[in-house]
Amino acid sequence: MKIKTKLRLGFAFLFIVVIFFGATALYYIQVISASAKVILKDNYETLNYTKNMRALLDENAAPFEKNVLQQFNRELAKQEKNITEAGEKEATLQVREAFDQLSSESPSSPQLLKAIRANLRTIETLNMNAIVRKNAAAMSSVKKATLYLSMAGTFAFLVLLSFSVNFPGFIAGPLKLLQDGIREIGEKNYSQRLNFDKDDEFGDVAAAFNQMAERLNEWENSNLAGLKSEKLRIETIIEQMQDAIIGLNEQDQILFINQAAETIFNLQKAEVTGQPIHLLTKRNDLLKSIIGTENILKPLKIYANEKESFFKVESREINIPNLQANKDNALRQASVSAGKVIILRNITEFKERDEAKSNFIATISHELKTPMSSIKMSLQLLNDERIGALNPEQQGLVSNIKSDCDRLLRISSELLDLSQVETGNLKLNISAIDPLKILDYAIDTVKFQAEQKEVKLEVQAATGLPQVHADTDKTAWVLVNLLSNALRYSHEKSRIIISVKAEASKLIFSVRDFGKGIDEQYQKRLFERYFRIPADGSSKSGTGLGLAISKEFIEAQNGQIWVESAIGEGSSFSFALPVG
Ligand code: ADP
User: Where are the transmembrane segments (predicted)?
Assistant: First the structure.
């Protein structure tokens, strides 16, 4: 039944109860007033008539005058019309008969008067009894009315009470259940259902709610199934990757590790999942060596799977968008950390290829050096007058071949140096040495070049400099390389300042030129292998290895190398080495 109908029936029932109560009250008021009316109107009037008749007889002496008789007759006539009780009629008839005789007789007989009086008394007694009886009846009606009305009142009160107690619950109960259900759905509990078992509007609402929850459940499950299969796919990919991968949550507990990581770190997935990483590092040295030193540039050499492998350690913070419904139901978006992933990239293959390349370059450059040197010797012999004079063209050709030969020798020796660095075969011969000696050696080497370009080499060095802790050859090589670059990129007739100064347990060597300078965007990349500033390549020859080798040499000696430059103002290349 619909709530609307129920409400209508409920109110109709209340209305009927009120009407019933009112009607009962009205009925009993009517009954009581009717009884009272009868007492007043009939019996009371009769008593009045008889009292008047008796007074006429008592106050006048027989024989009665005519007007007394007339008055008596009037009262008697009224009484004859007002007969209500059983026996009253007979007594009134006898009064009439006696009065009729009394009116015709004179003098009147005392028996007649006596008879009239006796009958008047009978009439009075009958009416007095009737009054008493009717009063008792009225009283009982009042009692009955009081009883019935109080019963009806109690009944109406109880009905209203139960209505007012039950009615709010009847509406609010299902609403509360509905509210709870909606809250559960809001908390993603899509298995929530409402069972109202009712055929009304609440039943319809419950059916619609259940249908909605079912659809949401289906949707969630289908999404979940999709997500699960995607998760499985990603997990399989991660599992089968060559690189070792360890996933950590924001509390640094292990979320997952793949097969490669298990092998490399000698860990068991089942044992370590959920464990805080700092606990594992206590008993796993390899793990300890990579945690905290993430993103180290040097490849990590690890012996796993019965062979040596090289790994590059990378650590990535995982930041995910934070979508959170706050109390105002507004969406707040920000990025929150969801942990990090540590990847040990397997670079063994690249490392092997790189090594092969370095060895190849080392062999080639080494093998080239011998024929090149013999070509150089032959060229010197060609220039010897004793073998035969060369004409000017031939001399020009020989000098060209000689400079090309020098270049090739320089390139092959640079390649050899680099391959030495790359294969880890760099041998340093460190000793405490006077920095001015290195300076002189380097200046001597480039003097001829400088003279040709008419570039002035200025030396700025304080006296009493401490000795430097370095490999003389390698440091001189670097200084020569910097000076050659400075000469190469200086204008003719300009100058180059070579300085050395002591600064906090370090000696700083600088080569300052006044050439065109280097654009800031290239400055960081100058020390990379094979890097050359794009526009320079066509005009100036070079390999792009000089600065890279210089960096390796200086860093191998615990030093630093850097550049300061501005376009149009020239460049200053410096390196610092520890004081000896
Ligand atoms: P390269 O053999 O080409 O000189 P380097 O590693 O010595 O190789 O230098 C790399 C590049 O840096 C050069 O190609 C050049 O463009 C730039 N460079 C080096 N020194 C200077 C300098 N003093 N002034 C301007 N550019 C320079």
Answer: 7-29, 147-167
